């Protein structure tokens, strides 16, 4: 029960890592505010985990300061405080610099970077008050380049800089900030990314995940609950000396020396 009596706001809560984090917060004794653009998605997640009025779903765009501010006000009105934020909102679109449309670039910056920035701006006053934690879900794409994902790679690198700025500027006021960098995690978004692998290799979805993780030390993709465990730990007092950290949760893929794989 490492989040007992803690109140956590999760953006991108309607699916994948965000939804799994919401479930784990409640299992760990906390209360959670789910935020996402699709009311039906966050309401469905909330319905599966509601326990003793510990869950509240607030539909809105995490890339809107007004929307996030309203969600914070609702959280404080219902639960009296805000102790942690897990910024999970994000999407991916493919394309290199010459292939990516201007609109696609702007969508990637909005969904991945603006959402984290405005979520931080709206929640930091409450986190200063509670000496709380701000966790940004980045990606191993925030640490190294991935093919044909220029917008996503750029935004995920940028949110790590945002996290470090928050850790530096607000650490003296008791706020901790950290970034989580997942590798291949089995989520609806990742399932969609497996489609070209399935077509090229003539394999099933399971076979596609096996293919893309064949060179990682643990030889498997993760599941959203494993990332949720890390997010909840970083939100808890057990991580009270951890700030400014970038934590990979990728089956070891980022330790692999790519140039030596064919040796």
Describe this structure in words.
- The protein has helices at residues 16-27, 39-49, 65-79, 102-130, 150-170, 188-193, 195-201, 205-212, 224-235, and strands at residues 7-11, 31-36, 55-59, 84-87, 133-137, 176-182, 185-186, 222-223, 246-249.
- The mean pLDDT is 95.
- Helix 3 packs parallel to helix 4 and helix 4 runs parallel beside helix 5 (150-170).
- It has nine helices and nine strands.
- 46% of the residues lie in helices and 15% in strands.
- The protein has a single domain, classed as Rossmann fold.
- The longest helix has 29 residues, at 102-130.
- It starts with 6 loop residues before the first strand and ends in a 14-residue tail after the last strand.
- The protein has 263 residues and is α/β, with parallel strands linked by helices.
- Strands 3-2-1-4-5-6-9 form a seven-stranded parallel β-sheet, sandwiched between helices. Strands 7-8 form a two-stranded parallel ribbon.
- Strand 1, helix 1 and strand 2 (31-36) form a beta-alpha-beta unit.
